[in-house]
Structures are given as structure tokens and as C-alpha cells.
Amino acid sequence: MSDDALEFTAEESDWVFDYVLNLFRSPAWELPVMCFIDDNCASFDTGEENKFIYTELHTQFRELVETVLGSHLAEMGLTAADFASICEKQRDSERAAGASVADGVSADVVNQILAMDDFLSFKKLMVKRNLELELEAIKELREEVTEDEHDLEAQFMELSVLYKQEEMEQAELEAALAMSMSVQTEQLRLASVAAKVAEDKYASAASDTRQLSPAEVQQQIRQSKKKAEEICKKNKESLEENRNKQREWQQAAEISEEELKRREEYLRKQRDRIIEKKKREREAQLKEYQQEQKATAPEPPAQLVEKLQSNTSEEAKKAEEEERRNALRIALARRMKQDLLESANAAASEPSRSGSFKVHQVVELDEKLQRVEDLRRQSQEREHKVHAKLRAGFSS
């Protein structure tokens, strides 16, 4: 941690962290972050290839998040080093209270923060969002066609929705896997530190439970990854079968290439309209939020204001730009991952524990894997019914 960081009391640290949490829950965060995701996710497909543009966009996303967070901290007179210090110290007080930052923000925001620090999580987040927008556009197109159960176009639209929903299930699973791997990598780092330094603060923090060894953590990671990859492989094979079946039905129904291109162009325009509508809604929410903040924004503690105003250190102001960005990214991502790990452990030992963010359902893949399999069976049952209607349409 930088020597330029100020020293903060527990009350001051709590106030600053609440200030950041309120940012995460506000349109001031959602507008720039979600608009970036919506505007750029179309570049991401479900293939395994990591295109150069993915790396470029990840860098841009990271810079955007750092800028949004950094600008709001700067409004308070806080540096990246200050925030890194607060992340650690305020975490100690939350541990004592049994609280977690992850309980204060949505799963979407948690994913966005982890995506800033982890390329695979970012890629899966973008793929998932791309499919969400495609599914929304397809559903709107479906509503425009006739609801006659004997109409072939209506049945094809129903199949398109089903297949896209299955792609969504696959994307959600892969996003959960990427998040789990990212969090478990942090667990491995903590285990390695604790193994090397017995008095390390991470080791002493786990006083109620035995600290897993690095080898045990690595074994957990391998088992989770293997189990999820088996399901992913099975799902991908099923999705490829769906694509082949869809092409066969289209040929049997004699749907022309021109018609397919027309639908594709319609869906692209519909998607653009959806994105533009969401952007207008977010801008309106931000405007309303900013007006409310002028009247109701909480005042920081007087001592904190005085401390920040007196912090005129030229050294703090001359910190390297890259160091500032790294400090923000590393401090926030590590803090989030550590909270996710502790929340997952608490959820495992206290099944009745509740919270706005059921983090153990995200970190632990078992429930997610089961949900995907259940949804796949439900989807296949519906698919059989649609196929039966299609056959009836062909024979009539």
C-alpha cells in the first residue's frame, strides 16, 4: 500500500465505503457501465476464440470503471491509496459485525467489478449480455407474428425463442464458472500467504475455521472446473443439435435466404432500438438521481472533511497514473472476492442466512449446474410439443 494514504478512523472508513456502495447502487454507476456493455457486447460470440478486440474492450472497460470510481472518490478528495487503505480497514470492522459488501450490491454489480479485474469473467459477462439482448429482440418479433398455433411462422418463432433461451442458460453457466474460478484464485492466493506467514492477517482472520492449504484449494478448483466443463460440453453439443434441427426445419418449410436475411436485419434494428430505449431510461434515472442528491446527499463526518481538505501533499497528487488504476482495481476486486469467499462459507455453515445477494449460489456451482439441467429438460419438453405442431402443419 502506498505511504501517501491517509489514516482513517472506523467511522470515517464506514462513511466512505457507504458512499462507494451508494454509487454502485445508483444510476451514476449503471448509466456508463451498462451503456458500455450494451454498446459493445455484440462483438462477443459464444465461440472459444479470444479475438483481439476482446482484449481492447476489456482494457476500455477497466479504464471506464476506474474513471467512474476514481472521479467520485476525487470529488471527496480521496486518492486510490486512500481507498485501498479503507478497503482493508473497513473490512475488519465488517468481519466483526458479520457483514459483507457483497450483501449491499446486486449480483450484476459484483460481476462487473470482478470483470474489471479478470478477462474471462469480462468475456462471459459480455457474451451473456449479448444473448440477453438477442433474446429480448426475438421475443418482441414473436409478439408481432400471428398466434395461430397452425401458423408455421409462429411455430418457428417459438423454436427460436427456445433455442436462444438454451444459449442463455449456457452463457449463465459459463459466467458463473468464470466468476467461481476468479474467486477461488483469490482463495488460493490467501492460502499461499497464510501458509508462508503464520501470523499473517489473513490466517488470523480465519480463527473459527481451519485455513485450507494451497493444495486443498487447488484440488477444489480442479473439481469445480471439471464438473462445470462436463456440463458445458454436454450443453454445447445440445446447442449444436438445435442449430442443425433449426436449419432442417427451415429447409423443410422452404424459408428463403432472403426471408432469413430480412429477419436478421429486423432483429438487428430491434436490438438497436432496445439499447437506445434503455439508454434514454437510464439517462432519465440519472437526472432524477442527481436532483435528489443535491437535496438529500448525506454529509461526511466533519473530521473527515477537515482531514481531506488539509491533505495537500504534492506527493499524493503526483502519483503515477498506472499505479492509481492498479490500486483501485486490485483493492476493490480483492475486497469483493474475499467477501464472496466468506459469505459462501457462512452460507454453508448457516443455511438460513439471508441477504439481498445470495452469493453462495453464485460462487458454488452445484445449484447452478442443477438449474441448467432442469431448465434443459423443461425446454426439451416444450420443444417436442412445438415439433409436433410443425409436423402437423407440414402434413396439412
Automatic annotation (TrEMBL):
Origin: domain of life: Eukaryota
Question: What ranges does the record list as Polar residues composition bias?
Answer: 206-222
Statement: the UniProt record of this protein carries the keyword Cytoplasm: yes
Subcellular location per UniProt equals: Cell projection, Cilium; Cytoplasm
Gene Ontology cellular-component terms listed: axoneme; ciliary base
Q: Which residues form the signal peptide?
A: none
Biased amino acid composition, Basic and acidic residues: 281-291, 314-324
Keywords, A to Z?
Answer: Cell projection, Cilium, Coiled coil, Cytoplasm
For the keyword Flavoprotein, the answer is no
Q: Start and end of every BART domain?
A: 12-134
Annotated coiled-coil positions are: 124-158
The family database entries (InterPro entries) matched by this protein are listed as: BART_dom, BART_sf, CFAP36
Region annotated Disordered sits at 203-223, 272-324, 376-396
Spell out the PANTHER family in the cross-references: CILIA- AND FLAGELLA-ASSOCIATED PROTEIN 36, PHOSPHODIESTERASE HL
The family assignment reads: Belongs to the CFAP36 family.
User: What is the designated name of this protein?
Assistant: Cilia- and flagella-associated protein 36
